């Protein structure tokens, strides 16, 4: 049984986030994540008995728009509602902060997840310098 907590702006090391990135199959981005939590509007950590099992950062102008980035849940804890709980908590926190629009980009296979989280899926575009 998991006993997870979600905390806003809880201290978290870049090393812990980078380890979680590796666990979910992403590039580690070694040495880059020490500054991400400090530069984000907010971040949420998910812990099970102190162990980091989930993370999301949010970039925002504090008024009209916010962007959910780096939503991660450790593979050993996926499909238990943690990702949904994190997204919904982020949206509630942003609403409480007075931010109106919440945006997210995702790959096609994640569309059902984000629809279930309440997102209206519309057309958009992205330039990803890593793809290019």
Describe the structure.
The protein has a single domain, classed as Gcn5-related N-acetyltransferase (GNAT) (Aminopeptidase). The chain contains four helices and five strands. The chain is globular and about 35 Å long. The protein is of the alpha+beta class and 132 residues long. The longest helix has 16 residues. A five-stranded mixed beta sheet has the order 1-2-3-4-5.
What's the short version?
With 132 residues, the chain is an alpha+beta fold. The chain has helices at residues 14-23, 36-39, 82-97, 111-116; strands at 4-8, 42-48, 51-60, 65-73, 101-104.
Question: Could you name the key traits of this structure?
Answer:
Aminopeptidase; 5-stranded mixed β-sheet; alpha+beta; 132 residues
């Amino acid at each position: 049984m998991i006993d997870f907590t979600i905390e806003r702006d809880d201290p978290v090391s870049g090393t812990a986030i980078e380890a979680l990135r590796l666990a979910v199959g992403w590039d580690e981005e070694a040495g880059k994540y020490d500054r991400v939590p400090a530069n984000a509007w907010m971040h949420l950590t998910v812990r099970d008995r102190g162990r980091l099992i989930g993370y999301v950062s949010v970039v925002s102008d504090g008024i009209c728009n916010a962007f959910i980035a780096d939503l991660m849940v450790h593979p050993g804890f996926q499909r238990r509602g943690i990702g949904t709980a994190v997204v919904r908590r982020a949206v509630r926190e942003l609403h409480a902060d007075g931010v109106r629009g919440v945006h997210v980009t995702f790959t096609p296979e994640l569309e059902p997840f984000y629809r279930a989280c309440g997102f209206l899926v519309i057309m958009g575009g992205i330039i990803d310098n890593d793809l290019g």
